[in-house]
Design brief:
9 helices, 7 strands, 5-stranded antiparallel sheet, plasmid, globular, alpha+beta, two-stranded antiparallel sheet
Amino acid sequence: MGIASRVVKKTGYETFPDGPANQEAAIWMSGGRSWARMKLARDMIEGGHCPDIAAEIKTIKEMGGGSCSEHRRLSAAELSQMHRSMPVIQVKESDEDHHYVVVGDWRDRTVGNHAVVVDPWHMVKKVYTYGERSNSTQPIPLFVTPPGPPVPDSAMSDALSASPASESKMDRFTKMRVKRPAGPQAAEAIINALRSQEPQTVWDDAAGTRNVHAEYVDPDGNVSAFNGVPPDYLDRYLDAKEQMSYALPIRG
């Protein structure tokens, strides 16, 4: 669970520095950059500029943007480069379009609800067990990385070492795509457009677990909630939620 927590935090806060592209609060907090980062990454990938999976991962890393599917892919890629005592399963919810990673096979009776969910797409970034998920339906497995040592893949290692584009660069790209400077006006325009044109693709989800404050004990007896956040992150998140309540219509 400790390794899973590190992946959640690295992916959630470093790989995607402006947060998920389709979480309304992240769009607002970043002034629209989170959405712009995803658009630029997908333009590169869908435009045929990436010859293989490692190149796609590197592009996502360099742009630093994506929805839950990109968060799932980057989490799984990070875990593939670590020693794994259990399988890493990339999944999709069976009743909604949401992707994430599960460490351990919940269908194995010796694991069951103790499998660990890795889902840095949520705004409150915390690992939790399969049995603590808010969505109790059984997910659909997509890809499996079996237990074992780090997968020998120099191209993937290189991809994962890439750094995301700077805020100033993405501010310029946001202005180009949205026709407004990165900030509240750009964020408001993006959110309203997504709500009206693609309502099933924009979300306002804080957490994927019913037990945000749950604590766990490791084999050495150490207790942790695995819910540390960067300084001022929660304040900025709550401020964004308040500002959105005044600037945007209530979600239907």
